[in-house]
Specification:
- The complex is a heterodimer.
- Chain A is α/β, with parallel strands linked by helices.
- Chain A has two domains: 220 residues, 3-Layer(aba) Sandwich (Rossmann fold), CATH 3.40.50; 83 residues, Alpha-Beta Plaits, CATH 3.30.70.
- Chain A contains eleven helices and 13 strands.
- Chain A has a six-stranded mixed sheet, sandwiched between helices.
- By secondary structure, chain B is mainly alpha-helical.
- Chain B contains 14 helices and no strands.
- In chain B, helix 3 packs across helix 4 and helix 9 runs parallel beside helix 14.
- The chains are: A alpha/beta, B mainly alpha.
- At the A-B interface, helix 1, helix 2, strand 5 and helix 3 of A face helix 1, helix 2 and helix 7 of B.
Chain lengths: 317, 333
Amino acid sequence: MANPAETPNVVEARGLLKLYGTQRAVDAIDLDIRRGEIFGLLGPNGAGKTTTILMMLGLTEISGGTVSVLGYDPVRQPLEVKRRVGYLPDAVGFYDHLTARENLRYTARLLDLPRRQTDARIEEALNSVNLADVIDKRVSTYSRGMRQRLGIAEIVMKKAEVAILDEPTSGLDPHATFELLEMIRRLKEAGVAVLLSSHLLDRVQSVCDRVALFNRGRIALIGTVVELANQVLGAGHPILVEASGTDVPAALGSVPGVQNVTQERAATWRVVADRDVRAAVAQRIVTSGGSLLRLDNLQPSLEEVYTSYFEQARNAA
Amino acid sequence: MPPSAGTQRVAGRREGSPFTGLGPVFMKEFSDHLSSARMMVLMLFVIAFGALPVGLSLQELRNVTESDPFLFLRIFTSAPQRVPFSFTASLTLVIPLLAIGLGFDSVNSEFNRRTLSRVLSQPIYRDALLLGKFLGGLATLSVALVALWLIVLGAGLLLLGIPPRGVEVARGLGFLVVAIAFGGVWLAISMLFSVLFRSTATSALCALGVWLFFAILWPLIVPVLVLAVTPTNVAMGMGRLDETLAMIQMQSTLERLSPNTLFGEAVIGLLNPETRTLGPIIPSQMRGAIMGAPLPLDQSLLLIWPQVTGLVAAMIVVFAIAYVVFQREEVRA
């Protein structure tokens, strides 16, 4: 068994396969997750994200291939894996009749943490997720966002090296989502590798270093958001132009580098060029007598990548 | 199951003790049960059901003038005139109910509260979770039964004014062990249903259904079944001795498929020291026996040994089935 400290990857999956009957829920995927990064698993429901996560934790049987987590095999050494990996399931549940402290104390006992440290670690963990003031309240009084944060606190208390979060932001209001993502960033700062699955794309985009796009049990695309955008949307610099008083497509068609101009809505066009053409575009509109109202450099959005990818996949099928 | 999965399972021998984390699970279940409102209700129920026959039979026993070496044991077994059942008979009804109440939602409630995957993502095996829950329930059951037993004993001391003899205490302790084993069977049955069904209402209903079946239907069905396969002349009591014996034996074998029968027979053997056999007896076997003479404790234990073994075996078998089903269950919602 390799020494976990030597491997740069915290999770390595090779040809990982999960069959339910004849259906391939996870179809021979390869996946590497590096130490200290936030990795996003994206894809529609039923694409195999949760199954992949459960196989990494040894909570469901593997039908084929291998996966190693921190150098351990979740099939043969699930206890070693689970000691080092924190898991926040989709819509996590806690014992409602117990307080936050009691819930975490039970986890601490299961983890066999030294009793003398337990209370200090629980308080520290709850502090880090801003739940210190409700530490002795029953979990039944908690909102959904608070429960998710308590789940993060459990991972913090565990001092996990890898945190696996399944749909951590689903069902949360924007403020609670923002707070939770802040906490995920803090986990990363503490050196924890974070694997999160989600379908809230813009949120994921803001925290993830790399993402993998799941489709029907396969990883369709993997890489940074920009890399994905280049693969799916094609290379180029998209910009958004809002102008009036001139025929924009005609005016911009002759700007060097511009590849195409498409109208988004009234008086707004999307321009794709092979280089940064913003200065030239602004000049052309002004000289042609129009008034330039807005000029935006469009970051490739994950949502666009996602929509466009699944459109292409549907058309190909 | 595809062949690759099969070979994987053979090759993959898991490491670490299956009992890692058993202690914390047990302690949590135990303290949850003891502090729960449900346990309060169940205890009230048990005490109410136990107090009625005990109180009435104590009143009657106070008026007994003839000397009875096992007067204390009569508290448990005598059926008072005003209610048609003894303390032990009412326990036959109430212990399963107590056990079902403790076990019917033990696994599926974790599932429904979505705590199961979180708990299983801690470094424990499913073995420890299920066994811890079972032992926690069994410990709770034992506490309840010991408390009840002590109450009965104390009431007997106060109202009869005589202390129990050592052998009576020993038989009473034996009864306690048998009662806990009996409760264990029903706890295992109710936990099996809690593993099988995601809905707690369904699992409670199924466990209660099995309980009703064994409490009411099975004693009625067995004679019918036996009659159906027995020749008419034997059934009418005109067969040869061995044929009649075979019929009676078949009947008691079928009856003993019910844990209630096993419990009842074990209790009779323990608490009625005069009991010499739990099956049919023919006059030639009674030659030389003094009617009504009590058996020594070791002989009584020998007599009920198969019943006790049967109860423990049933408990283990049902738990093993629940275990196998639970191991194969998917943890995701």
